[in-house]
Specification:
By secondary structure, this protein is mainly beta. The chain has one helix at residues 18-25, and strands spanning 6-15, 36-45, 57-64, 70-77.
């Protein structure tokens, strides 16, 4: 089975108060409701199965998990 690549490019905005940003940098968990972190998602693929991704409009609301990982909740605009 041949694997197909899907490229994801993002562009967005984070509005985080300085004290909250410092807490995140220290590795502390901060409830995502306390900051604004949004991105546009742009997909590109040549895979016939996922070619529909090339033409969609999508965005993500991001949060930082307690483990420090960034979590995307992605949505397609219909």
């Amino acid at each position: 089975m041949r694997k197909r690549a899907i490229s994801l490019t993002t562009n967005g905005r984070a509005i985080i108060e300085p004290e909250i940003d410092k807490a995140i940098e220290r590795g502390e968990f901060v409830d995502p409701e306390r900051y604004y972190f949004r991105q546009h998602l742009f997909f590109e693929t040549g895979s016939p199965k996922y070619v529909w991704l090339n033409g969609i409009i999508s965005f993500a609301i991001l949060g930082i998990k307690q483990t420090g990982e960034i979590c995307y909740n992605a949505y397609m605009v219909k």
